[in-house]
Amino acid sequence: MKTVFVTVGTTSFDELIETIISSEATQALKARGYGRLVLQVGRGALLPDADSCPNIRLEAFRYKNSLAEDIEQADLIISHAGAGSCLEALGAGKPLLVVVNDKLMNNHQLELAKQLHVDSHLLYCTCSTLTETLRTMDLSVLRPFLPGQPQNFANFLDKALGIK
Amino acid sequence: MTLVVGAVFAALLLCFIFIIRLYAVVKKQKPQPGAKGPVAVLVVAGSGGHTTEILRLMECLSSSYTPRYYVIADTDKMSQEKICTFESSRGQSDSESQFTIYRIPRSREVRQSLSSSVVSTLHALQYSLPLVFRLRPDVVLCNGPGTCVPLCVAGLLLGILGMKKVLIVYVESICRVQTLSLTGKILYPISDYFFVQWSALRDKYPKSIFLGRTV
């Protein structure tokens, strides 16, 4: 069974949680073959019960020490625009849909999500377009996100500091 | 009266010397401490993402960077564990693993206002100055948490006083694509090597070094 993992990091994003468990969104997920929905809701007010969604198998929790396992098990990750969450999902090589919280203005974290979207590493939408995006998205357009090259930094510094 | 004039004159002279020294330290040719032996590096680990990023950079630094002094904010609970895990993982290749962790008060919490940040940064400076003066690192390596400002200022002061030229190496976080962080803006003029992760920032800041994404 294909799994969707929704993560909001250490923030709260109730609008996203509310939208994703709506019957429209869960039907759209079901239509695309996703049968299990795992929600990490952070400090949000909403912590849905497992039986609150008839369409889909639902699990929800607030925090875990490490989300690595949930990310590893997911076939699709839906995340807030936080840099940490985006990088963790992309680093694991998972298809990522970022939902922007348009109520947070001038959030510098958006810079990274926008750039990664421009470079086709992730899909990008808002809560009001989420269900439509789930219906129409094409994950095959996403390009893999290659890890950065800390060795380039080390080589530069070695040379600058005269280390042989 | 002559005493007052004398005092004012002395103060002005001190300011003048300070500015000349500041200019000399920032502009003069950069030393190559690695040519003489191991390089002592003071690493400022911030919190969360900053620590993850800086440890990614540290992974590739050879054992020529010894000893390694890590400084973390006292409100940071996660970084110490991450650093210890990281250092023990490099332990095998690095037979004489040498690292120490120091804690200083945090200079700025996320979303703290600018004016209260100034006060808490001054508070952090009280702890940073003796620490940096005692350790006298060759390099301060940092990537953006507010805690790096007082430590870099302390390093700069060592140079101004002619005690030691401390190289300030700043690596802007991968999160900053179009604009520098507040810390980045403060440290841009005083850093010796200023790295950015995205080409848009290199285009805006000519002194910066862009090697592609490095974390």
From TrEMBL, chain A:
Q: What is its EC number?
A: 2.4.1.141
Superkingdom of the source species: Eukaryota
Q: Where are the transmembrane segments?
A: none
Q: Which Pfam families match?
A: Glyco_tran_28_C (PF04101)
- Where does this protein reside within or beyond the cell? Endoplasmic reticulum
Q: What is this protein called?
A: UDP-N-acetylglucosamine transferase subunit ALG13
| GO biological process terms on file | dolichol-linked oligosaccharide biosynthetic process
The record's Gene Ontology cellular component field reads: endoplasmic reticulum
Q: Which gene encodes it?
A: alg13
Q: Which PANTHER family match?
A: GLYCOSYL TRANSFERASE-RELATED, N-ACETYLGLUCOSAMINYLDIPHOSPHODOLICHOL N-ACETYLGLUCOSAMINYLTRANSFERASE
TrEMBL record, chain B:
Stretches that traverse the bilayer: 6-26
Q: Which GO terms describe its molecular function?
A: N-acetylglucosaminyldiphosphodolichol N-acetylglucosaminyltransferase activity
What membrane topology is given?
A: Single-pass membrane protein
- Please give a single GO biological process term from the UniProt record: dolichol-linked oligosaccharide biosynthetic process
Q: Can you name the source organism?
A: Stegastes partitus
Q: Which family does it belong to?
A: Belongs to the ALG14 family.
The name of this protein is: UDP-N-acetylglucosamine transferase subunit ALG14
Q: Which UniProt keywords apply?
A: Endoplasmic reticulum, Membrane, Transferase, Transmembrane, Transmembrane helix
The record's subcellular locations are: Endoplasmic reticulum membrane
Domain of life of the source: Eukaryota
Annotated Gene Ontology cellular components are: UDP-N-acetylglucosamine transferase complex
Assembly mode: Forms with ALG13 the active heterodimeric UDP-N-acetylglucosamine transferase complex.
